[in-house]
Design a protein that fits this description.
This protein has 241 residues and is of the alpha/beta class. The protein contains seven helices and six strands; from the N terminus they run E-H-H-E-H-E-H-E-H-H-E-E-H. The chain has a single domain, classed as 3-Layer(aba) Sandwich (Undecaprenyl pyrophosphate synthetase), CATH 3.40.1180.10. The protein has a six-stranded parallel sheet, with helices on both faces. It is globular, with a radius of gyration of 18 Å. The structure holds 3-methylbut-3-enyl trihydrogen diphosphate (2 copies) and magnesium ion.
Length: 241
């Protein structure tokens, strides 16, 4: 959060674009799916690291609205991996105080997967140690478009006057309405682009791009980036004294 002296400040909310699974596998002569499997192990490690590091909110980009363009076998493999992951991690997430949320359009997802998602959400509503948000079939343009439609409907019902609409009104219709904006967005694998992730919410986020591929991204890499964040000065448009 904003602070006069940002040194040693821990970001309250870290969002991660977990990229580089495919390249990690290809470099080893393995199928791309093996990279995704290795990446899932890192998810577990980073989730566990957050409470120790003082991070309260973690958002992970797991599957984008554009990722359907990949080979059918890769998409099916990713979806199966997600199901396996949710099944195997549910008990630990529940007992270790992690509140889980999913953002994105659930309609095209397999009903079995959606059941696992809603079940995990409802079984962790009382948890507060770490707020984990998984972006699954998420796209920021999609999110903002559906928020604009919902806002238009509220206007049509007479609940909001069109000339009184504020940014906060629109925010109330985003998937992320219950969570704060990310303070820090990390992208692994060396790509320096946002790929339709949290466009609205990251308006004032700090960005960190690392060349490390996601399956190699350890709790130590994470700790180093958090340390570096602590040395940055966030201005939010103002001139600091
Ligand atoms: C990120 O790794 C995981 C998903 C997008 C699901 P990639 O699969 O994009 O890995 P690269 O970019 O091809 O190396
Ligand atoms: C972004 O990575 C999406 C996820 C990490 C889930 P991509 O690999 O899909 O992004 P592009 O295609 O390089 O922009
Ligand atoms: Mg990629």
């Amino acid at each position: 959060m904003a602070a006069k002296d940002n040194r040693q400040v821990v970001p309250e909310h870290v969002a991660i674009i977990m990229d580089g699974n495919g390249r990690w596998a290809t470099r080893r002569g393995l199928a791309r799916l093996r990279g995704h499997q290795a990446g899932a192990t890192r998810v577990r490690e980073i989730v566990r690291a957050c409470p120790d590091q003082g991070v309260r909110y973690l958002t992970l980009f797991a599957f984008s609205t554009e990722n359907w363009r990949r080979a059918r076998s890769e998409v099916a493999g990713l979806m199966a991996l997600l199901r396996r992951y949710l099944k195997s991690e549910a008990a630990e997430l529940i007992t270790s105080g992690v509140r889980v949320r999913f953002i994105g359009d659930r309609r095209p997802l397999n009903p079995g997967l959606v059941r696992l998602m809603t079940d995990l959400e409802s079984r962790t509503t009382q948890n507060d140690r770490l707020h984990l948000t998984v972006a699954l079939n998420y796209g920021a343009r999609d999110e903002i478009t559906q928020a604009a439609v919902a806002l238009a409907e509220a206007i049509r019902r007479g609940e909001i006057a069109p000339d009184a609409v504020t940014a906060t009104d629109l925010e109330g219709f985003l998937y992320t309405r219950a969570i704060p904006d990310p303070d820090l967005v990390i992208r692994t694998s060396g790509e320096k682009r946002v790929s339709n992730f949290l466009l609205w919410q990251s308006a004032y986020s700090e960005y960190e791009f690392t060349k490390v591929l996601w399956p190699d991204f350890s709790a130590n890499h994470f700790a180093d980036i958090l340390l570096n964040y602590g040395a940055r000065e966030r201005r939010f448009g103002a001139v600091l004294p």
